[in-house]
Amino acid sequence: NAIMADTITHDLFVQHLQMEFNMESYLFLVACDRLKEEYGSDGWAMAPLTEVITIYEQFLKMGSAFEVNVSSSERRRVERAIKDAESALPPNTNRASYALEEGQRESSDSAQQAYRQIPCACLDRVHTEVFSLIENDVLPRFLKSPVWTAYQHKVTAKRTFSSAAYERIAQFRRNLSSRFASRSMSDVGSSSSQRGGMKSPRGNNGRSLSSTDEMQSGADNHEIELGSIYGKQ
Question: Which residues of 131-164 are buried (b: 16+ CB within 10 A; e: fewer)?
Fold first, then answer.
């Protein structure tokens, strides 16, 4: 479940299922989960019979395009549940008016098919069987596959880089704080002597450096140092 909850690992697992030609099991689980999300997951939840028949014909019926690997007993149990729902009277149908000739009754059944319902729970046991097959058979192979191994190496490398970069930035900040603290103490100690006619510091062009110039020069040096931090990785 943790693998399926993450977008990246989910996509990797689906890729593995495709490589093993086992996508039908995943698609069946998705179809069952969507049915319960829409109509409810408790034991009394009812779903349209037509939707359950669609799932049965796509994934459970013998010879279907996406037939899943399930036991014959579970397959027959779903078939019986569908037949029971098909034979039940449509809702709000008068029993006397329902006693028609066979041909007329078949026509009436077809017209009422969309209104028939079936418990969502009729697919629970076959869902559990397919899920267990994936969990106990497919998933262990996925966790040993080259795809998963490469992903784990990538995650580990990213975590290592992030930790190292964070430590370098933290060290740079400590050095920066210490540097400015030392400069402040030096400025306070020499301020009285500088007032006695000391000339302002000048730049390369002979222009006096203002406080703003000094701050900008310091900022440029710090940017260079930050660049060296990331350049080491």
Answer: eebbeeebeeebeebeebeeeeeeeeeeeeeeee
